[in-house]
From TrEMBL:
Pfam families: ABC_tran
Any one annotated GO CC term: plasma membrane
GO molecular function: ATP binding; ATP hydrolysis activity; transmembrane transporter activity
UniProt record, GO biological process: lipoprotein localization to outer membrane; protein localization to outer membrane
Family assignment from sequence similarity: Belongs to the ABC transporter superfamily. Macrolide exporter (TC 3.A.1.122) family.
UniProt protein name: ATP-binding cassette domain-containing protein
Signal peptide: none
Keyword presence, ATP-binding: yes
Residues annotated as domain ABC transporter: 6-226
Keywords: ATP-binding, Cell inner membrane, Cell membrane, Membrane, Nucleotide-binding, Transport
Length: 226
């Protein structure tokens, strides 16, 4: 049986605006296993990003547990949550958010060096990851000199730099044209599956969702399997 890298139990999150309380997550239960890719499908405004933020320890649930690395991270102090985020979780967003003054290689080296990896070792890891995405010839290019697809490949490589056990992606190809999105997504799945981590990937694209191992949908604040 595959090892669970993340387990959410009865996770709830609500937001208060004036006299109105919006119940975004109403008791989410979800297990992500090592080596599997799971598509999260949900219309905009239904809590998809909130769920990813709670699962990624960027936000606290109002109730429930978020179990990562054998611990209920929902109840940990911020410093310990940050440490788990840095070591166990990689994030990819719709927009690449690369640092424009750093090269592709340096963007992938940076999170490693923040985590205490020696510069020479971080460089080797960055070159290896960028090579997996076919960017071995673009290592020294600044983001502004890369195409949209190349920028997103660098962002994915950066998310994998510290060898996380979990990848969370929010519409990772949503800002790309259809043809480029198709290629980048295939590369993402290939590298993720080769690394053995668990990935929860939000997408509006049904074709991309069907390429993953499982599909879950967020409906009325709960997750359902499709």
């Amino acid at each position: 049986m595959a090892e669970a890298v993340m387990h959410l139990r009865d996770v709830a999150r609500e937001f208060v605006s004036g006299d109105e309380t919006l119940h975004v997550l109403r008791g989410v239960n979800f297990t992500l296993n090592a080596g599997e890719t799971v598509a999260l499908v949900a219309p905009s405004g239904t809590g998809k990003s909130t769920l990813l933020h709670v699962a990624g320890l960027l936000d606290h649930p109002d109730s429930g547990t978020v179990r990562i690395a054998g611990r209920d991270a929902a109840k940990l102090p911020d410093g310990e949550r940050t440490a788990i985020r840095c070591s166990e979780i990689g994030f990819v967003y719709q927009f690449h958010h690369l640092l424009g003054e750093f090269t592709a290689r340096e963007n992938v080296m940076l999170p490693q060096m923040i985590a205490g990896v020696p510069k020479a070792q971080a460089r080797v890891r960055a070159d290896e990851l960028l090579g997996l995405f076919g960017l071995g010839h673009r290592l020294n290019h600044l983001p502004g000199k890369l195409s949209g697809g190349e920028q997103q490949r660098v962002a994915i490589a950066r998310a994998l730099a510290n060898a996380p056990s979990i990848l969370l992606a929010d519409e990772p190809t949503g800002n790309l044209d259809v043809a480029t999105a198709d290629v980048v997504f295939d590369e993402l799945l290939r590298v993720v599956r080769g690394s053995g981590l668990g990935a929860l990937i939000a997408t509006h694209n049904d074709d991309l969702a069907r390429r993953m191992d499982r599909v879950v949908a967020l409906r009325d604040g709960v997750l359902v399997e499709l």
